[in-house]
């Protein structure tokens, strides 16, 4: 019998499997927005030894390399690792909360939109602290409980199109959960024995075409992708129609959508 955290992680594994290219073409651009702030907060400069945990297609790792950092990366999904490696990243398959690195190895660890995909966030943070040298920097981003209107566009389209919530959505064990607020994330980091904790919200408008924003979900990327791709074909047609109708609210006047998003960014020292 699986624990709730193991069940959560198992769904996460299937959710990303085979979706690296679709992710790269859609949500990876969204998740790229905070990478500059993430690396600044991690004090990544030439020679910094950095781990990008949950690297995906390698956005943060590649940006750190461009700063002259020495970069290692892991991801739980083999397709993501292959995509990151194709971009020149020294990446390998590993799943939090277990990392194949020695104690105190890294100057900095970054995890961009990863902690929200991990079944045991406290155990994951303990492991991220283990691989940091004393005084090393941890920087995290994840989606905030306070959502931007752009984050709900596809959700609203699903509701209006009559989508039926699928049985296999990832559900976090309440005992493992934490408040997705600056205060909640800061408390979690302090509980994990990090010091100099600071946590804040980032807000931005993600720009994407109607097709690009639809493409990630239609290809099954992330939770919204699970919802869309588990519907009957006629329901998907209705969701798409509703999506096109609701997209008008976000037209930026230049042929794209301006989609407001809110995320948390926290940094701390080991
Ligand atoms: C939203 S994506 C973010 C990817 C990347 N950090 C970026 O900025 O584009 C989440 C990533 O976390 C990875 N992931 C999920 N659970 C994980 C775990 N337990 N350990 C490591 N990676 C994990 C997924 O495979 C996926 O690549």
Describe the 3D structure:
With 270 residues, this protein is α/β, with parallel strands linked by helices. Helices cover 40% and strands 22% of the residues. It is built from 12 helices and 7 strands. The chain has helices at 4-16, 20-24, 27-31, 35-41, 59-66, 78-86, 121-130, 153-160, 182-191, 210-218, 222-229, 233-247, and strands spanning 49-53, 70-75, 91-93, 106-112, 132-143, 195-208, 257-269. The chain has a 7-stranded mixed β-sheet. α6 links the parallel β2 (70-75) and β3. α8 packs across α12. The longest helix has 15 residues, at 233-247. The mean pLDDT is 96. Bound molecules: S-adenosylmethionine (SAM). Residues 12, 16, 28, 31, 54-56, 59-60, 75-77, 80, 95-96, 112-114, 117-118 line the site of S-adenosylmethionine. Residues 12, 16, 28, 31, 54-56, 59-60, 75-77, 80, 95-96, 112-114, 117-118 line the site of S-adenosylmethionine (SAM).
List keywords for this structure.
Methyltransf_11; 22% strand; Rossmann fold; 270 residues; alpha/beta; binds S-adenosylmethionine; Class I SAM-dependent methyltransferase; globular; SAM-dependent_MTases_sf; transferase
Secondary structure elements and pairings:
Layout: H1 4-16, H2 20-24, H3 27-31, H4 35-41, E1 49-53, H5 59-66, E2 70-75, H6 78-86, E3 91-93, E4 106-112, H7 121-130, E5 132-143, H8 153-160, H9 182-191, E6 195-208, H10 210-218, H11 222-229, H12 233-247, E7 257-269
Helix pairs in contact: 4-5, 8-12
S-adenosylmethionine (SAM) binds at residues 12, 16, 28, 31, 54-56, 59-60, 75-77, 80, 95-96, 112-114, 117-118.
């Amino acid at each position: 019998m699986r624990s709730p955290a193991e069940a959560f992680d198992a769904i996460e594994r299937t959710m990303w499997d085979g979706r690296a290219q679709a992710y790269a073409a859609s949500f990876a651009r969204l998740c790229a927005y905070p990478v500059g702030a993430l690396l600044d907060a991690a004090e990544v400069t030439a020679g910094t030894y950095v781990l990008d945990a949950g690297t995906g297609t390698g956005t943060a790792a590649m940006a750190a390399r461009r700063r002259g950092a020495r970069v290692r990366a892991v991801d739980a999904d083999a397709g993501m690792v292959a995509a990151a490696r194709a971009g020149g990243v020294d990446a390998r398959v590993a799943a939090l909360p277990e990392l194949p690195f020695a104690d105190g190895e890294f100057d900095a660890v970054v995890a961009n939109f990863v902690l929200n995909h991990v079944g045991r966030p406290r155990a994951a943070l303990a492991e991220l602290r283990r691989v940091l040298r004393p005084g090393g920097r941890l920087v995290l981003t994840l989606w905030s409980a306070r959502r931007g209107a752009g984050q709900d566009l596809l959700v609203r389209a699903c509701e209006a199109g009559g989508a039926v919530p699928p049985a296999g959505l990832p559900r976090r064990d309440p005992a493992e959960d934490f408040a997705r607020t600056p205060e909640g994330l800061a408390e979690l980091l302090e509980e994990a024995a990090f010091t100099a904790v600071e946590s804040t919200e980032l807000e931005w408008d993600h720009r994407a075409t109607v097709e690009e924003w639809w493409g990630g979900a239609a290809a099954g990327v992330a939770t919204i992708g699970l919802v869309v791709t588990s519907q009957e074909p006629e329901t998907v047609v209705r969701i798409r129609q509703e999506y096109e109708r609701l997209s008008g609210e976000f037209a930026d006047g230049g042929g794209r959508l301006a989609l407001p998003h809110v995320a948390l960014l926290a940094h701390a020292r080991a």
